[in-house]
């Protein structure tokens, strides 16, 4: 019989509806005053401790079974006010073994059969069901814990990935963490434009400054230069003390000419930014400011992973790498020297000045050298307004290079806010 039928007081509930004597539940019948008149065999089997319960007050029976007083009170109130009771869970210990029951009771009425007027009820043993429910709940909680563990591990990996990003060029970082292994595994022969730069008389700078101030100046310089390199699409190979190594053409390339032009444009913008920041660096303790020399060469290089199974370095090998380093070492402070290959690619767009042909150490043939001056009229590259504040001007100086990605994003956000604020004003060369 369905529960709603059992609790339907408008119907006469014949004791036979649940096959009283043979029912698998512990069934009882009581009079209107809740004195037990009859129980079935399973009632005695379930609760042997009760003995003979004939004429016993049913709430007293519940108390004897160890039913909590709150549930007994609920039974009395529901029976008095509603004429029916449903307590989904009643915990009863039988012979030292905890069991779980549901208690159903309802008043019955019959004008034709007065002996049916009273209270009918039954204890349904749901121990196994509750055990399964608890098991399912335990499994659900375990799944939740597993999911939380996975999410925590994912956050840890994400945090680790962000920390690792500062040791890799963003292009290489994205290739690795997006699973684009073809761009970062093995080796490839590619035509690249290489860039080297370093600070002139850096040793003197290190000897004249406090370590903390020196670190602040160097980090500021490297951060500013990194921002410019990434804005121009360069792949930052490494920092070697104060030296910066950048290349164009891998993992992405816009063609040999465009790669070379972007590299030269980057170098010019770096020198411009260095001039803008001299006052700031002097305030930090670099009394003579910072002067930087740069070298650029173009040619075929081998690019890829080099090292051992324990430690790999994604870098570039080849004579153009060495030549760029040699040109940088020969350049005057504030100058940019390029080789003939680079000159051939950019000469239609950039003004240059021929230098003496040289024979760098380690090179069998003389090398034609050119000094970069500026882009020819009408050939200027589209340049982002650089934000700076010196006095009344906006100045953004990144002093911590530990998180390049975050620094770049911060600069871009400030730029957007600044440009939105001044969108209606005439353009200025900042």
Blueprint (SSEs and pairs):
Blueprint (H helix, E strand, L loop, with lengths): L2 H4 L19 E5 L5 E4 L1 H6 L11 H7 L4 H13 L2 E11 L2 E12 L9 E8 L1 H39 L4 H8 L9 E13 L2 H7 L2 H21 L3 E6 L2 E6 L7 H21 L1 H6 L8 E16 L4 E6 L1 H12 L5 E4 H7 L3 E5 L14 E7 L28 H18 L9
Parallel strand pairs: 9-11
Antiparallel strand pairs: 1-2, 1-5, 3-4, 4-5, 6-8, 6-9, 7-8, 9-10, 11-13, 12-13
Helix pairs in contact: 8-9
Please state the second-level CATH architecture of the largest domain.
2-Layer Sandwich
The CATH C-level class name of the largest domain: Alpha Beta
Silhouette: rod-shaped
Largest sheet: 8 strands, mixed
SSE-based structural type: alpha+beta
- Tally of separate helices: 13
Q: Return the string of H and E elements.
A: HEEHHHEEEHHEHHEEHHEEHEHEEH
User: Strand portion, in percent?
Assistant: 15-25%
Q: Please indicate the count of domains.
A: 2
How far is it from the N-terminal to the C-terminal residue, by CA?
Answer: 87 Å
Q: Which residues form runs of ≥5 with pLDDT under 50?
A: 1-18, 384-403
The name CATH uses for the topology of the largest domain is Alpha-Beta Plaits
Mean pLDDT: 81
| Topology, number of strands | 13
Radius of gyration: 43 Å
Can you characterise this structure?
This protein is α+β, with helices and mostly antiparallel strands. It has 2 domains: 3-125, PAS domain (Beta-Lactamase, 2-Layer Sandwich); 189-382, Alpha-Beta Plaits. Helix content is 39%, strand content 24%. It contains 13 helices and 13 strands. The strands form 2 sheets. Strands 6, 7, 8, 9, 10, 11, 12 and 13 form an 8-stranded mixed sheet that branches. A hairpin with a 2-residue loop joins strand 7 and strand 8. Helix 8 runs antiparallel to helix 9. The chain is rod-shaped, with a radius of gyration of 43 Å. The N and C termini lie far apart (87 Å).
